[in-house]
Design a protein that fits this description.
This protein is 29% helix and 31% strand. The chain is α+β, with helices and mostly antiparallel strands. The relative contact order is 0.18. Residues 1-7 have low confidence and may be disordered.
Amino acid sequence: MFKFTSSPPVRHKVAIKLTGAQAKEIKQRMLNWAKQFSILVFLDSNYYPSNYDGYECLLATGSVDLISGNENDPLSLLQKRHNTKPDWLFGHICYDYKNILEPQLTSSHTFSTGFPLLNFFVPQTVCHLNREQTILTIESFDDPNVVYKQINEIDLEFVEKLIPKLRFNYMIGKDEYLDTISKLRRHIADGDCYEINFCNKGYCDHADINPLQVFNALNALSPSPFAAYYRLNDKYMMCASPERYIRKEGNKILSQPMKGTARRDKDYVKDVQIKEALRNDIKERAENVMIVDLVRNDLARCCEPGSVKADELFSIYTFPQVHQMVSSVSGTMRAGLPVTDAIRYSFPMGSMTGAPKYKVMQLIDKYEKAGRELYSGTIGYINPDGDFDFNVVIRSLFYNVSTKYLSYQTGGAITYDSNPELEWEEMRLKAWAMERIFE
């Protein structure tokens, strides 16, 4: 659906200076206030330092305009909405939007969560907290002072039922998973591809959960710089993503592919050793650099010739559960192009596909047992100036409150040097970070 409002209301704006005590509580107050809305996006940086300007958190609630669809090209409608009436836009793109970008591709698996391929909304209210956590800015078609009064007065003292103990089933068992890794290695040996991201799905039927409670638990156990809580009517996503997909600020485009994972250890000395082993691991560096090259090629399609470069290679970022190898690729977007072209030419992100991208997306559909849907897609925002920031939807739980279906997906990059047993262990390490909430 795409509708224009003939006489758009005026968005009012207020900036509130927070005390230390207010800043400490403001995120949870915002979330508790927002749960009344049938559509909302909460993006949380979890106090991670950043080399780029941005927000500590953003909250978008309510919808005055909607761009949503599974057919044709809703990304073009998104661009049209931005061109016609620039405003905040929050929403998601599912992995399977690839079939619109590449019409010869298909998705042969059933979808279970119900998220449309693309959905963006113009929010009634946007709240954003600055990096220093000193200023909360509220932009709303309602009175922003009233909104702040409601947020500030929200009751934090409420008792939730215990998170239920749940047991997850797996679409692919261990023996079949190991066998599939061997088959993918043969594809690589035959020259069909160089690297492929292969994923498995965990799911639970008849799960009765409180999505906000589960997000709070996930965000407490695995605080990540691109965390997100998303409600779209009866569909929810609880996301603890450590990875940025793509960011635009002015004419600067940035992507930060993440490839290479190692577990954490409680012993400091062992943890440092694991981190250094990851930094020097030839296989992990090979995985990472192949995706860096793919991202460079993707960005070159919308950037000035010669401007695309790798600003950062093989850096190790540490998170509560894992160490990750991250690289940064940037470029200067060509003048006059639609702002969404950076997404159009780089989606799905290379870290969740492999190389060459078109071929591995065919192999992913052949060997995986479930549609990815919003997993390995993206969620984020476009601001009125046309700048944006989007994450990679990984380390995420998906829940449909109508069907009581709860699921997640995890996986890893497969190269010829991959050890099937170690790939299984990496996939399970990522899954455990979510399953443990329900143990």
